[in-house]
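ok trying again, last paste got cut off:
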Amino acid sequence: MSRFDTVVIVDWSGGNDRGPHPKADAIWAAVNRGGAADAPVYLRNRQVAEDWLAGLFAAELAAGRRVFAGFDFPFAYPKGFCEALTGGQDPLVLWDWFEARIEDSAKANNRFDIAGEVNRLFKGCGPFWGNGLDRDIAGLPRRKDGYHNPFADRRACETQAKGAFTCWQMSGAGSVGSQVFMGLPVLARLRRRFAGQLAVWPFEPLTPQIAVVEVWPSLTVGPAPEGWIKDQWQVSEMARQIGGLMPEQVDAMLDVDAPEEGGIFGLGHEAVLKAEAAPLRNDCFALPHGVHWTPVDEALDRLRQQLTPVTGMETVPLAAAAGRIAAQGVFAPRANPPLPNTAVDGYGFAGARGAGMHRLPLVAGRAAAGDAPGAVPAGYAIRVLTGAALPEGVDTVILQEDVKVGADYIAFNGAVKEGANTRRAGEDVAAGDPVLRAGRVITTADLALLAATGVAGVMVRKRLRVGVLSTGDELVEVGEAAGTGQIYDANRPMLLAMVAQFGHLPVDLGRAPDDRAALRAMLDGAVGNVDAIITSGGASAGDEDHVSALLGEAGAMTIWRIAVKPGRPLALGLWEGVPVFGLPGNPVAAMVCTLVFARPALAQLAGAAWAVPQAFDVPAAFAKRKKAGRREYLRARIVEGRAEVFGSEGSGRISGLSWAEGLVELDEGARDIGYGDAVRYIPFGSFGLG
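nice, full thing came through this time. structure:
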C-alpha cells in the first residue's frame, strides 16, 4: 500500500519575483509529516522554490521518509499535443522539451515567445493564446477572439473538475498555461537530479521514495479563513487532507489510467479528502513481530510516529485562543512596530551630529504616541514622546535630559549617532513573518504578539474530548457505602482532573462492572461523543481483564508490555475508530503511565506538537541500588535543592502521589545511587499539572 511519511503541497506561479514579503499569486508550499504541520513557506520566485524543494527532498531521503510531492499545475496536455510536438506520447519527454527551451530568471522569462514558437509550428493555428507583454509576438494572439485550437480545450480529467481552467491560456486571470510552461522545466530538473529516487504519477510506477503528483487544491479546499492568503491556506489545508489519508485511500486515488493526459489526485474522491479529521489506522498501535518487552523510549517513539490528529478545526477570536492548539501557522499581517518610532522622550531631527555645540530651531507642536506622523523641515527639530511615530524628516532622537530648551530652539553639546534612540519599522516583527507555528499551545504571551501584529482570530483545533472509564466490581463511588472487599474509585476523579489540566475536555464515562457485555455497551455509547478513551483496570490478560479482551475481539488491540516501573502493561487499541488507552488499575501506575505515555499521545491526537517534559539534573537526597532492565519513576519532591523520594516504592501507596511534586526518572541501566549523586527530576508542572 502507498504509505507516505511526508506530504508537501506546492502552489505554483508563472510570474516573476514577488518580493520579500508574502503575497497572493506567488509560490507557496506546505509540509505535513505524520499529521504534524509546518508553517506554510513563501517562496518569492522559481529559483528559490527549486532550491528549497531540492533541499527538502534531500533531507527527507536522508531521513528515510517517503514523500508525496503535490504540484498544482497540469503535468500533461490534452490528447495529441505531446505527439504532435515531440513525435511520441510520453509526457515526460515533453517536460524535457520545455526544459531545453525555457529561459527563466527572477525578473524575466521567455514563456510567451515559446508559446508563439509552438503556435507557428502549427502554421499560426496553434493552441496557445494570451500575450501579457507590451510587444506583439508572432503567432500568439492576445485574446481568444478568432483563435483556432487543433486540440481539445481540456483534458478528460479537467472536464470532470468543475471550474478547472484550460492549459492553453498564457495570460490573464486563470492563466494555467504559464504555470505549466514555468513549472515543467523545474520538475524536469528535479527528476533528473533525483534520478532513481523520484517517480511521476501517473506516468511511472511509484516505487521510488519520492512521488511527484498533480493536485488541484480548489477541488477540496474551501475559502481561506480571515488573515490567510488564499494560496497559503490552500497548500496547508491540502497537505493536512492528504496527510490524514489511510494508505488504502491513497491507493484508490492513485488508481488512474491516463498515460498521455495525466490526472488530478483525488478527483472523484472529494468527500474523502474533505473529511474533517483523519481516522486512525487499525494497526496504529501494532508492535513489530517478536517484540515482548518494549523500552520506554521505543514505546514513546512509536506513539509519536503512528498517531495523527483526530480533531477538527475552528476559528476563535483572539481573546478565546489562550490554551488552544494552533491548527495552522499564522503570519503577521502587519509589522511591529508598524512605523519607525522613538524609544524615549526627547527631540527628533535628521542625521547624526558630531562633537561640539549644536543648535536647532524647533517646529511648533509635538509628536506623541498615536499621532499621525507629520513632516519636519531639514535642519529643524521637533518634540517627540516615547512611542511616537517619527515624522517625515526625522530619523534620530536625543534624550530630553541632554538638551537645553529655549523658546524656539534646542541646544546640546556632543556627538549623536544617526538613528539614536529610535526603533525601526518591523524591527520586532516584519509583515509576513511567522508569529505562531502549527501545533503550538497558544500562551498569553502569544496573544500579545498576535494582537500587536493585527491578528484578530486564530484557526485552532477543536478540543479533544477524552472519555475516562473505570472498570471492576470492586469499585464503588465516593459517598456510597463500601462493602467488604470493595474500594473507592480513586482513578476516575484523578484522571478526569488530569485530562482537564492537559487542556482537553474530560468526559466522565462512569465505571463498568466486570461484565463484558456491560463494558461493550458503555464503549459503544461513548463512540461519537469522545475522541479518545482512557480506561483503568482490565488491561492485562487475566480472566477479568475485559478491556483488553474486548479490544482484541475488535481486531485492533495490542498489549504493550513496557519495561517501566510502576506500570508495565498498557492495552492500546481502537474501538469503532476511537483510540483507547487501557491503563493499569493501580492508581500510582495509572498516574505514571498517564503522564509518561497517555499525555504526549493525547496531545498529538489533539493536534499539538509532541510533548516532551522538561527535566532537571539535581543532587539526590536518597540512596538506592537499582537493577538493570526497567526504567523506574519514583515519586519525589525537591527539598533544599535536592530530590527527596517517597519512603515506600509500593504501588499501592496512593499517599505518595499527594506527597510528591514530581518524579525522579532512572533509566534502564543498573545503578548505585548515593546521596549527592545527580538524578533526573521531572516536576509535575513539566507534565502540565498544577
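cool. The radius of gyration is 32 Å. Residues 436 and 446 are 8 Å apart (CA to CA).
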